[in-house]
Amino acid sequence: MNLPFFSASQADRRLLTEGRLAGPMPWVIAIMMFMTVLSAAGGIGLNHAARNLTTGLSNRITVQIVEANPDERAVQARLAAEQLRDLPGVSNVRRVPDEEIDALLEPYIGANGSQEGIPVPALIDADLTDAAHADLDAIEAVVGDVAPSARIDDHAQFLAPLTGLIGTLTWLAFAVVILTASALAAAVILAVRSALNTHGATIEVLHLMGATDAQIARLFQRRIALDALFGGIVGFLAAAIVILLLGQRISAVGSDLLGGISFPWTAWILLALLPLAGAGLATLVARYTMVGALRKML
């Protein structure tokens, strides 16, 4: 079955004698599609990472019991944890084990630092509902009654600058996608004008034989659509290889933050549609540019 925009008859091929995929246009489109796919992938990955951060940590607090006396610190930590469990909107209250704290601080104070007289705060993690998080001052006051040395760290407060930066980078990535799409349209316009100059005599003969502007435009848009589809597929495959290689590098780092930059299967479907969208855009731009130029030639 022949598609109207991607197939050509033997007569069409005789009219346009140069070979398919000739000239720099397919490779220019491949470079643009490579940049477009990478930019779109970056935007999708950053957006996914931001959602993972906000979903997992935005409503979480950590209570620090900053008390030098280890016995008093243990008592206040127990009372604070009990008080948090009784509060509405507070769940998953967990006293962080001393062994886990020692493992986190080992690169800075050495192994078993808390057992060598260094005052290490006791930590309690808890998850809050949106309503409880909005009234964080009340929770801090209640916990302070039973644990005067308690300090509450709001994870959302620390994450706000990071999520803002990720949001800005995400919009920047999508802006690059729009810019590269505009550059693709400009390249198609230049290719159409070049084709008009190259085949001006052929176009005049076709007009004299009664060919309409739409028929002549269809002849050229098929060639441009083929070039755009070929370049788009090449650019997508190159970008997919780069994305997979970067994914392996990110996994090797072992960072929880970088690990959040992942791709769901729906993201790959959207990226795979970009070459088709690029070919469709090139076809439409070529058609309207060619028809407009042909009307001026009459």
What does this structure look like?
- This protein has 298 residues and is an alpha+beta fold.
- It has eleven helices and four strands.
- It has helices at 10-15, 25-57, 70-86, 98-109, 130-134, 136-146, 155-198, 200-208, 213-253, 256-259, 265-297; strands at 60-65, 90-95, 122-128, 150-154.
- A four-stranded antiparallel β-sheet has the order 2-3-1-4.
- Helix 2 (25-57) runs antiparallel to helix 7, helix 2 runs antiparallel to helix 11 (265-297) and helix 3 (70-86) packs across helix 6.
- The two termini are 35 Å apart.
- Residues 1-19 have low confidence and may be disordered.
C-alpha termini separation: 35 Å
Which oligomerization state do the chains in this entry correspond to? Answer: single chain
- Uncertain ranges: 1-19
Rounded mean pLDDT score: 78
Helix run count = 11
Could you give the order of strands across the largest sheet?
Answer: 2-3-1-4
